[in-house]
Amino acid sequence: MKLAKVISIQIAVLLATSSFLCAADLYVKAGSGGNGTKESPFGDLWQAVDSAKRGDIIHVAAGTYNGKSGCGNFTIKTPNLTIAGGYDQNFSARDPFKNLTILERAKDYKGDSMGLGDGIIEGKQGADHGGLVIDGLVLNSASRNSYYDDGKINAKDSWNGALLKTNGKNIKIRNCILINPYGEGIASTWQGPENEVSNNFILNTFYCAVSTRSAQPDSVIKITNNTIAFCWFQPSKGGGMCLFVGSKGKTIIENNIFAFAQTEDGEAGFAVSNTFGNEDTVMKNNVFFQCQGGYYKFMDADKKNLLLWKPEELKQLNAKSDDFMLEKAEGNAETDPKLVPDKDYYEKFSNFVASKPGKLNMDFLNEWRRSVGLPLQAEPGSPRKNWGMEYPLKKVIPDLVSKLPGKGVQAAGPFQEYKGAAAEAAQPGQPAAKANANVDYKQVEFDTFKKGAPESKAYASAPVSFKAGLGEKRMTFLLNDAPNSDYICIELLKPGESYPTRNLTYGYILKGTDADKEWEKLSKKKDKVNKEGGVSIKGKATYIGKESYSYTTAIIIDEIVK
Question: In degrees rounded to 5, what are phi and psi of residue 396?
């Protein structure tokens, strides 16, 4: 009874003096060599990405960032991370379409493809990277591609992969330029109700610019105010499509510009594909222009694959959306968005289209050529002579900003501000917590947590410190305060024990914290670590509520130290 009273006093003091650790701010400026503070930024984005903890915000100044050893790949393995580019050199102002923050492979990269993900930005498979916000970055794949002397892409020697690829919940991509992949622009296994693709230029893609094909049930993906243009057919995959809607989830498509989707031998070339017949799709106030295969392909309620490609059919779609497998549709129209593409690029692109016009009105195409200063008549020729050329990044802003109010990218903003609160003392066992010098972690023996031990229940919710060996990662989630959506579960062994043993309890680590990173490092050599005496654990002891386990107290871990 006396022990329980002492522990209760410790907990009361802990609760009175502690608070949550909030998101930290990390800073990156090309050419710097610092430690990530505003005054001394990291020199490359990969350093900040690898250093970041759960919920951190990375602020990136204008410049070019090539990644570790120039590989052009940035792997995200931390939840609730925000990467915001577009800052000026002293981080006093942010304008993503003025202060270009470019992520690309170094042109003199000497490494190989072993271990590199498909994307320039890629969520690590198996690591929680949900809640990711990417805002104000340029992802340019031109340096991952190979081009012939005449500018045509050399598909065989080009990097076949999406620019941005994720597999997490609630992913947000804002105010970016995604350009020149030999593959998709954005490919994600969309999960959760708060996904967003907004105010982006997605240009010169192959197969499709944005795919929701792998969206999960109950997901919601809002695709708004994007300018998606120059979508190429990709041999062996198909396309080119601006947007491919999956069979699951809800995709909301609003105020986008879909322009210059290209077909080959009548294959695809349409702006929006809904060929899975997803009737939870919303399509409002979008602009369609020069999409060679048509506006909208869909599977209707009778399982017929149908294609809208005439202006009068768009009016029918707007009037009665459910006939076209849409939850809602209104305001969609074929309209010239008044873009001014690079002249040399567009001449080759339109000559390619002229070889087989598909559903296009060639009079309209040729008049538009004249308006941008090209000869009135496109010259039909070999399609592969004018195929997949690099689109010059410097010709995106302001040339591809639409003159139509509210449609496509709004290059003048406003742009969201991101600011993490200063780190404060953390309450053990709470989100983003770590060991706190102000907390009295009571030193205990491992068998304190054993069933029947006098102190096992008395230490419930108490801050404790003890030695343990490291076991395997498990899926044994026993605590309401440590759900598997946010935590990993690991075995903690009694010091000196080895498999097989029942002398173990369970530890729970919040994903993306210091403890999580330390576990990932030490778990790779846990046999050696255990032989050398194990690790020191600090955290909150919690009674699991079941007497069927040998050890009835589990630990929400704040710190692991070798």
Answer: -85, -50
Give per-residue pLDDT as tens, 162-212.
Answer: 999 999 999 999 999 999 999 999 999 999 999 999 999 999 999 999 999
H/E stretch holding 4 reads helix 2-17
* In contact, 442 and 463? CB cutoff 8 Å: yes
What does the domain layout of the chain look like in residue ranges?
A: 32-400, 442-561
What confidence tier does 258 reach under pLDDT thresholds 50, 70, 90? very high
Task: Name the class of domain 32-400.
Answer: mainly beta
Question: What average pLDDT is seen over the chain?
Answer: 88
Alpha carbon separation from 452 to 110, 502, 543 (Å, rounded): 61, 15, 12
Instruction: State yes or no: pLDDT of 10 exceeds 50.
Output: no
CA dihedral defined by 108, 112, 113, 116, rounded to 10 degrees?
A: -70
Q: Can the peptide bond before residue 293 be classed as cis, meaning omega within 30 degrees of 0?
A: no
- Residue 87 corresponds to which tokens in the numbers above? 């800052």
Q: Bridge partners of 28?
A: 42, 60
398-410: average pLDDT:
97
- Six token digits for residue 57: 């915000």
Which letter does DSSP use for residue 215 in this model?
P
Nearest to 464, CA basis, from 7, 16, 53, 9 = 7
- Say yes or no to pLDDT of 382 above 90: no
Q: What per-residue string of b and e applies to 223-260 under the rule 16 or more CB within 10 Å gives b?
A: bbbbbbbbbbbbeeebbbbbbbbbbbbbbbbbbbbbbb
Instruction: Check the CA dihedral 43-420-186-330 and report its sign.
Output: negative
Amino acid at 252: I
Q: What is the largest CA-CA distance in the chain?
A: 94
Tell me the CATH architecture of domain 442-561: Beta Barrel (2.40)
Integer Cα distance of 543 and 547 in angstroms: 10
Domains 32-400 and 442-561 share a fold: no
